[in-house]
Specification:
Blueprint (H helix, E strand, L loop, with lengths): L2 H7 L1 H7 L9 H5 L2 H13 L3 H10 L4 E2 H8 L3 H12 L4 E6 L2 E6 L3 H36 L2
Antiparallel strand pairs: 1-3, 2-3
Helix pairs in contact: 2-4
């Protein structure tokens, strides 16, 4: 079943899955039932490939067609089309017909806030790891210098 059909069949569950990022306490996720959790998982699966993240970054400035995306990303049309279909299922990207072409645009700009949140968290994690490694380095050196 497509996500749009699931949204129509269970709007209350969908509301839990679609909450905004201002709710940092996770109450919406905690309240989500199994179908809503399925929506959330589908959303995150769509973001789980580096190429899809590159497509989202490329669409940040303006809508683009498959030919433009193929050229900018340096990969094949079938690959780009497959990734676009995956991004469309959870509603991250929209397809807009224009004449003989179709253009793809960001349907959910909130995805950028989510990606920024994740990138910030990763930067903090890597900084902590670097600090721990830096703090451990002098101890390792002093042990190596002992006879």
């Amino acid at each position: 079943m497509q996500m749009q059909d699931r949204l129509r069949s269970n709007p209350l569950s969908a509301a839990c899955a679609i909450g905004d990022l201002r709710n940092a306490g996770g109450a919406q996720l905690k309240a989500a039932d199994e179908p809503a959790l399925g929506h959330v998982a589908e959303y995150f699966r769509a973001l789980s490939q580096p190429m899809r993240l590159r497509i989202l970054n490329t669409l940040r400035d303006r809508p683009r067609n498959v030919a433009e995306l193929t050229q900018l990303l340096g990969c094949g049309q079938a690959n780009v089309s497959r990734h676009l279909a995956t991004l469309m299922r959870p509603g991250l990207v929209d397809r807009v017909p224009q004449g003989a072409s179709a253009y793809y645009r960001i349907a959910d700009p909130g995805v950028y806030r989510l990606c920024d949140l994740v990138c910030g968290q990763m930067a903090r994690r890597f900084a902590r790891q670097a600090q721990l490694l830096g703090a451990a380095a002098p101890t390792t050196r002093s042990r190596q210098s002992l006879p």
